[in-house]
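User:
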Amino acid sequence: MLSGDGLVVRVRPFRGELNRAQVLGLCDLAERFGNGLIELTSRANLQLRGIAQEDHLALLAALEGLGLLDLDPSFEARRNMLVAPDRSPGDLTDRLCTGLLEALPRLPNLPEKMGYVIDTGARAWLGEAIGDFRLELAENGALLLRADGVALGRPVSEAGAIPAIIELADWFVGTGGRDNGRMARHVAKAMLPEMWQRAAPRAQGWPEPGIDPELGAVLGVPFGALEPEALRGLVAQSGASALRPLPGRMLRILCPQPEAALHPGFVSAPGAPEMRASACPGAPFCPAASVETRSLARTLARRASADTDAGGSLHVSGCAKGCAHPRRADLTLVGRDGRFDLVRGGAPWDPPSLTGLDPSHIPDAIRSA
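Assistant: Predicted structure:
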């Protein structure tokens, strides 16, 4: 993708994991070809920014050497998958992942951003993750396929799970879903048959930074911006064999002693104000943005930790697309013509309550709005 500072090159880790060599290799590539940062996306992918056009092919060759490219670019475009972060080789999550990878070429042509969630680990980790087709578990352990935007899912067997995804995808396409773009938008307009709405998934969860009993070390990455120096230090300090990017701008560190992964360059405790804030790169890095975003988001997040009126989730977006957090937040600031519009309890494209705010006036405007 072309951005204001060059190309953005996205990397989708296979089965949601990067081994040690791949992590260190990406650090080198970010410094050699990019702007010196590795970004975590909302779908637990990684991306390098600021790539010059003339360096693109050399970067792709280096990524291929690290084992991070699909042989077929069209297959990579369909491989929008999130898997439970406690996946182990041969377990249910891993088997479903294998089945879905094999089935992707047989699925109908879906809109580019549609994706899949396999949330069948020890707990429901991915309740807030974006995904149109969701393989989940009910409280009794039964496997469900649930369409995003619908509270209930369809019980399926393991053998029937992938055929059911194909069937639901065919229903989506056959009922005009391509025009709506995403499953949640489509089911709000189309009548999803009752057979797909029979059982509730278990309570939805979300990992927190710190030492988790099942996941081990989980670290937060403010604004999803990974600095290669800090990442190398984390790998060396922890002896990590692999990293698993998570939605919500977090990393699971696979290492012998989880406590060794508590690196000062990352958030290692729940409740950090920076982890409640989302912000895109903003200007000058994105041509759609007319405002700087991340320093404002960091300032507001820290103030909010001591100001209950400004607490909750915060999103500072360079434009109305809302790439960093394309959904509701308690407080959203949207850049427009060098200033900001303020949206309370909505998404970046919702009507604002205040418009044309100078950045220096925003804290007072938030308190008085």
